Amino acid sequence: MNNSRVKAKSKPDDPAWWLNPLTEPQVKLAANAAGLSCTVARLRLSKFGSNLFRDHQEQPLFLQFFARFKLTMVLLKAR
Fold first, then answer.
1. Which phi and psi (to 5°) does residue 73 adopt?
2. pLDDT tops 70 at residue 7
């Protein structure tokens, strides 16, 4: 019997992020335990924009219905 499963690496090259000390991501992100400074927060706000969710617009029901019949086989099977 041919066992063609891919074996995972036993030891990763880089340690997992949760094994790093907390100070490393704080240095990389220019943050500290108290949070971002006002200057850094303003800079990131201007660079990346506000952190808001966009409203999801739902398709009308008739479009949802017809979207299910995109495949020709489904249309032929319905006859």
1. -65, -35
2. no
Angle in degrees, CA 66, 68, 72, rounded to 5:
90
User: How many other CB atoms are there within 10 angstroms of residue 41's CB atom?
Assistant: 12
Per-residue confidence (pLDDT) for residue 10, from 0 to 100? 47
| Gyration radius of the chain's alpha carbons | 25
> Is 47 in contact with 53 (CB distance < 8 Å)?
no
73's tokens: 């086989």
pLDDT digits (tens, 9 = 90+) for 36-71: 888 888 998 999 998 888 777 888 888 888 887 777
Q: Are 67 and 59 in contact (CB under 8 A)?
A: yes
